[in-house]
Amino acid sequence: MASSDTRVTIEGRELKLTSLDKVMYPETGTTKADVLAYYATVAPALLPHVRNRPATRKRWVDGVGTTEKPGQVFFQKNLDASTPQWVERAEIQHSDHVNEYPLVNDAATLAWLAQIGSLEIHVPQWRIGRAGKPKRPDRLVLDLDPGPGVGLLECAEVARLARSILKDIGLDPLPVTSGSKGIHLYSALDGAQTSDEVRAVARELALALEADHPDLIVSDMKKSKREGRVLLDWSQNSGAKTTVAPYSLRGRSRPMVAAPRTWRELSSPTLAHLDHQEVMRRVRKRGDLLAPLEEAYTDDDEEDDRLATYRSMRDARRTPEPVPESVPPPTDGRRFVIQEHHARRLHFDVRLERDGVLVSWAVPKGPPDDPAVNRLAVPTEDHPIEYLDFEGTIPAGEYGAGEMTIWDSGTYDLEKWRDGEEVIATLHGLRGSHRYALIRTGERAPAGVAGPGRAQWIMHLMDDARGKASSPTAPAAPSRLAERTGRRVLRGSARAAPAGDSAGAALAPMLATAGDVADIAEPEEWAFEMKWDGIRALAALDDGALGLRSRNGVDLTAAYPELAALADLIETSVRSAGPVVLDGEIVVLDDRGRPDFGLLQRRMGLTKPREIAALASAVPVRVMLFDVLIAGGADATGLDYDARRELLASVVTEQGPVLAPPAFAGDLDDALTTSRELDLEGIMAKRRDSVYRPGRRSSAWIKLKHVRTQSVVVGGWRPGSGRRADGVGSLLVGVPEGRGLAYAGRVGSGFGERELGGLRDRLQALETSRCPFAGIPSAEAADAVWVRPELVGEVAFTEWTATGRLRHPVWRGWRSDVAPDDVTRE
What we know:
Shape: globular
InterPro entries: DNA_ligase_ATP-dep_C, DNA_ligase_ATP-dep_cent, LigD_ligase_dom, LigD_PE_domain, LigD_pol_dom, MtLigD_Pol-like, NA-bd_OB-fold, NHEJ_LigD
EC number: 6.5.1.1
Keywords: ATP-binding, DNA damage, DNA recombination, DNA repair, DNA-binding, DNA-directed DNA polymerase, Exonuclease, Hydrolase, Ligase, Manganese, Metal-binding, Multifunctional enzyme, Nuclease, Nucleotide-binding, Nucleotidyltransferase, Transferase
CATH class of the largest domain: Alpha Beta
GO molecular function, one term: ATP binding
Family: In the C-terminal section; belongs to the ATP-dependent DNA ligase family. In the N-terminal section; belongs to the LigD polymerase family.
Oligomer: single chain
């Protein structure tokens, strides 16, 4: 492999990048690596405007060439055999043939297009519906193209004239300078009109403007009529036409971009097209100027309501199952749940999040634990996302009547998804990581198996699945902790507990998912807490003895002796009745009373009693309690959030190092504002009706951070220079992905002098000759010293790049409370 070649993993999808130093734009020296970096930067802005729109590509495999000698260009519609299996696609019937188009729905597909030289992306004004059929157009586009003798300023004048009419009919447009010659105007539609109807409206508008301004505007495409005038091309609204996508590069002599603009900019006498570097700066600073176009889009066609069947089979008044009334919005999540369902016949329901719903299969004997044994899998109706957390009893007489509990849950990495045919995915759950294939056999399922007459599939455990598969007959994770743990709640490490021992589950905290404000659809149903920057810990009291354990089961009791005071601050009647288990965060507060993770680092990892005692006085810790699992031997995990918070307040007295801050008394915006003013890490949003799910990562808890942070596994280091000449210059870090450790980049800033001095000694004992990373560029591996991937740290960063790298990572400190296997991409 050439030195400029590398393998990367983007959102769980592997991609080989080649010839990164190839010059794609000779006049500016812009390379393929530059093109990839551009699309990685603008991906969050670009993807909403191309999602689910069949993409036609213009490819310059060897670059655009020069004005004198242009490069060869290919206009490509159909996908070829070299297309990665994970690229989403759609088949479109043309007059005499069918083409298979890619759907540019994610950053990995965008990077693949850049890799193969598809500099320009062209899409129609309509999308593919979830049933695989074209929908009605959701935007109107006018293409203003200058003829000989006129330019961009005349196009801007026509744009203002067109806007005045479009505003009058409720279609206020947004402008995009095309990066080639003219301007595109986009207006959001409600999807009520056909392409022919929209095209007719655009044509009438063009004719009206031409009649009013005959010396400036022409609506006829004949070249003989275009000199000195601007063509108002209304034909872009034909169902068969495509327009270059917003934020797409252009195959001109310089890397210009179809760039969204403001109307104020269009009034400037210096208006000009923008290149890729300027557009990257604008996106970083201003975000997506075209965002209102997508905000107006609603995906609520009946043909796209994938929950219609589910809803028709259930009555929300008679079943505890979630029965949402609205059409589910599209999502990009990759969560799964496997539920043990004691219905008329015992079976296991396997559900994978896909496009806003949970695609589901009933597996009578449960997921296979042997690659030599296939299990019958019968597809069932799509389920709502809310089913990820569902446990309960479906009443007799209702569809699926019986007891349902969660057998496993987590996230998955997708390798292949062919609707109705085949799915290959690695599931990362509480029972380990396992790679499965779900394959349609073409047969019919036996009568009486989760829906008679449905297509029959098989579920197969792939040979190279990571970790040992668990049998469906293994004990389920407990949902009634007190009943199953009794006074064993303090016995042994969660990691060391034997298989099926519920003490391990009892000492596993519930985990949150990362999210943003858009995930809080109905704020009044959520409670908001400040996010404390420290070490997550469960505090368990039994027979007067207090134990502290980290989220991965490490005993922290001796490391933080000042927290022994908690035992005396628990209500006497409660602690005498039985075990108590509380959830909280261990923090060190600075002079202003704010958590300081840097100060906490001084307390982490200490084992010598003398050192611990000395620092307990100099750098005292506190525990911020926010939940209760067991109180006086009674299980509290089945209570809702508000009830548990009320219980916590009655169980614990705040004093000295023990704090139990209440939920924030205000709305979401106020909580975020207060968190920023206090320089906190962010906030935690928790559904008021949510129960506590030990050891599970749940969307009922969402962390909203002001600064992005990521736990990383250290796999090597590179020597320093200058004042770091005799030590570590940077750490090489990664994040577990699939069956290996995906390289995430170098971290060279953020280290304190004390920490930097001891870094090499800490890593020396772990040195190895074997590189632990997948996808590390040869240039970064050249002088690296590899270490066994056993240490976890935390970094702050700005964003993930399209190639799966951390952008601008800054070291925050070691995370001895997190095991490498527990690290997931935030």
